[in-house]
Amino acid sequence: MRPDNLLLKQIYVAFSNASYQLNEAVHRLPPEYRDTVIALCLGPTHILENNSAHRAYNVIGEKDWASRLCNGWSKSWIEGGDAQVKFIPQDETKPVIGGHYFEQPDYQKSIRNVFEYNIQGKYEIY
After folding, report:
1. Which terminus in the chain has less CB density within 10 A, N or C?
2. How far apart are CA 119 and CA 15, in angstroms?
3. What is the number of alpha carbons within 13 Å of residue 43 lying toward its C-beta?
């Protein structure tokens, strides 16, 4: 049975390895419920493909060595698959972890941008 309101979506924000768990979870849903999910993965260790959810946004910081290492390091290799991947500059890093931390300002700005330009006003959210 398909949900009645096609504009009603669930928003999930995943950081780092939570992207892998989110991918596993959405693939266990029937396709009609998978279509209710909008996923935003920041610094993902696993990139969600376009067919994983209604929309899947993957954001990788250019100084996020952990995410880049897990996904093949090369920007051209990562962008070559069937997924929406956006690389963002990172102005701030931390010792040891570089740009791989959730509170990283450029990742937080990306969350706001995806909501403002891709979700807000287009969908109903629960």
Report:
1. N
2. 19
3. 22
3-state DSSP assignment of residue 39: strand
Mean pLDDT for 57-72 is: 92
Query: Residue ranges of the domains in the chain?
Result: 8-118
| CB-CB neighbours of 37 under 10 Å | 20
Task: Assign residue 53 a region (left: φ > 0; alpha: ψ between -120 and 50; beta: otherwise).
Answer: beta
Over residues 98-111, the pLDDT tens digits come to 899 999 999 999 99
pTM of the predicted structure, to 2 decimals = 0.89
Rounded Cα distance between 57 and 50, Å, is 8
Beta bridge partners of 41: 14, 58
